[in-house]
Amino acid sequence: MSRIIHEIKSDEILLRMAGRFDIPLDKKGLPKTGEMAKLCKISPQAVANWKFRKAIPWVALYRFSRTKNISFDELLTGEEPALPPDYVEAVKWKDKYHNALEKIVELREELDRHKKPWDGKERRVFNVPPPRRAG
């Protein structure tokens, strides 16, 4: 596999990167080299090289996507990847489970606020009679 992206227009990728972070454009309509270098934490010469060659190394794009919390697919295509239906369903269940746990914790805290301190004499809990002694 090639280390450089040739099939996808690098100019479009640079514009997506710049648009996401409001980087001004130069006279040619591309992001300013110095600003892009600061954003990507690389040298301005490297960005100028990308523009000249019209190619961006995969590694640079991957690092950028990870550090800036952007989908790699979004950088390449401009579109967010579609999530599989089972993933979406799992997220819904996770949210329901999390909400139920929050409610349990909330109810437990409310119960603790209203509970009388135990004095050691009371034997009934939840209206259950004390155990009978054999005999």
3D architecture notes:
The protein is mostly helical and 135 residues long. The chain folds into two domains: 74 residues, lambda repressor-like DNA-binding domains (434 Repressor (Amino-terminal Domain), Orthogonal Bundle), CATH 1.10.260; 34 residues. The chain is 56% helix and 3% strand. The chain has a two-stranded antiparallel ribbon. Helix 2 packs across helix 3. It is rod-shaped. The N and C termini lie far apart (85 Å). 8% of the residues are buried. The mean pLDDT is 78.
Looking at this protein, list some descriptive labels.
mainly alpha; 434 Repressor (Amino-terminal Domain); two-stranded antiparallel ribbon; rod-shaped
Q: What is the helix/strand order?
A: EHHHEHHH
In total, the number of domains comes to 2
Terminal Cα span: 85 Å
Poorly predicted segments: none
Strand content: under 5%
CATH architecture descriptor name of the largest domain: Orthogonal Bundle
Shape: rod-shaped
